[in-house]
Amino acid sequence: MQKINAFIPYTEPEQAIRTVEELKRSASVYSIFLLTPDATSPIPDGCERITVDRLQSTAAIRKIVSRSMMDYTLIHQRSSALKLGYFALERMIRVAEETGAGMVYADYRTLAGGERREHPLIDCQEGSLRDDFDFGPLLLYEVRALREAAAQMDDRYLFAGLYDLRLKVSQQRLPVHIGEYLCTEMEEDRRTSGEKLFDYVDPKNRHVQEEMERACTQHLKMTGAYLSPRFEEIDLDEEHFEYEASVIIPVRNRISTVEDAITSALEQKTGFHFNLIVVDNHSTDGTTQAIAKFGDDPRLIHLIPERDDLGIGGCWNLAVHHPRCGKFAVQLDSDDVYSGDDSLQKIVDAFYQQRCAMIVGSYRMTNFRMEEIPPGIIDHREWTPDNGRNNALRINGLGAPRAFYTPVLREIRLPDTSYGEDYALGLNISRRYRIGRIYDVLYLCRRWKDNSDAALDVVRQNAHNRYKDSIRTWEIAARKSMNSRYEP
Questions:
Q1: How far apart are CA 128 and CA 75, in angstroms?
Q2: Are 334 and 257 in contact (CB under 8 A)?
Q3: Which of 112, 153, 323, 409 is most buried, by CB atoms within 10 Å?
């Protein structure tokens, strides 16, 4: 029955000891290794020490592999204390054996402040390339898959080793999700989903992101989904437009913010003609009347859809296909404002300078009063000209504000959803066309209680992540198909 070598972090001894006691109760565990940067601190009886810099490094993975002599390797990838479910490890082994999985993971519960909560996870798809994909605290690797993957790990990472490992394993067999609650984690990170949302673009994490990008790019090359920096040319004069640009604001029930957004758009100073298309998706809170206050300005086009089933993507499609839509369609969310009166001019200038089909700008995070809040400026510097469209498959967003060359947008169209529609569009555009960048702050993104991603429960987070993983899965298939057509 003893089939597992277990490896757990030992950075928080008190918590680790509690997990060790849990593991010792399982008849499936043959040995327990404590991963610690401290080569001198005492360790519990019956355990062996492995000195590592950090669990996430390639060096740590190699040490784990060298000590993995049983059929399965269990890695606890967090420092929190765990309580195992009844026969939990035996269940993980059985599923691994019966499915031939290279790695299995399971739903879990959290315990914080005396409150126990269920934390269901989602299935891992080919497009589950996010380095923050939630596998829960426990990863059970089949040892042959572990060794084969580790043998292909050529780069030496400080932070992306564990991520690199699971990508390598998934190239042969996708991880298998067990939809059962097999352990309880003593939760430490009590932040809401909205507070965690921008961790990956925090400047202090930049060196971590660079490693993750390298690992993901290598994975795409190995699986045939990598795109070299070769783009179709854009003819920005192929069609005549009455207006050079249109600012597009889809809105529903934003009485507190919509007037600020409209004022911000109409105050733009440009050397060209532009208009503002507000798609009012059947608001019921006074938003419609607030928009009507600006009716004397001939630049404002106030659309109320005939349909009552449109999401944000559908509202965008309605605006873009309006006969008075300009050559460039420029985003402005109804919560937010431009940072200055020259933002629109900068965006249009960038289209001509960079000859691209889409522009991504930079923005500043603020509270409702437009005072800066952490992490401050979000510039998405991971979106580079040579590798941005590959790295875009690893991250969950492309930045803001976004702007599009209207003929391309009319051809591709947005999915009619209210989450992820812009991400799907950006990936699709990047498959063929160059996406330009502006690193100046063009936009103030206000965080407040009514943001769509401010504080989501785990069910809604899972739904969002599952959809974006699906978008990536479809995009990977399209890129592989496109690459196959170019092969000699």
A1: 20
A2: yes
A3: 409
Other beta carbons within 10 Å of 9: 22
CA distances from 391 to 216, 219, 233, 329 (A): 7, 11, 21, 24
Cα 239 to Cα 84, 236, 404, 406, distances in angstroms: 64, 8, 14, 10
Same fold, 4-190 and 245-456: yes
CA 142-50-34 angle, to 5 degrees, is: 75
Distance of CA 150 to the CA centre of its chain: 26
State the pLDDT at residue 453. 56
Measured distance CA(165)–CA(207) in Å, rounded = 19
Q: How many CB atoms lie within 10 A of CB 337?
A: 22
* 406 three-class SS: helix
Q: Is the overall model pTM greater than 0.85, yes or no? A: yes
Residue-range domain boundaries for the chain: 4-190, 245-456
Find where tokens 């419609």 sit. Answer: 288
Considering only the C-alpha atoms of the chain, give the largest distance between any 2 of them, rounded to a whole number of Å: 79
DSSP state letter for 469: H
Cβ-based neighbour number of residue 483 at 10 Å: 14
- 401 contacts 437 by C-beta, under 8 angstroms: no
Measured in degrees and rounded to the nearest 5, phi and psi for residue 51 equal -85, 120
Please name the CATH architecture into which domain 4-190 falls.
Alpha-Beta Complex (3.90)
Convert the pLDDT of each residue in 338-380 to its tens digit: 999 999 999 999 999 999 999 999 999 999 999 999 989 998 8
245-456 is classed in which CATH architecture? Alpha-Beta Complex (3.90)
Q: DSSP alpha helices (H): ranges in 75-232?
A: 88-99, 143-151, 161-170, 193-196, 206-223
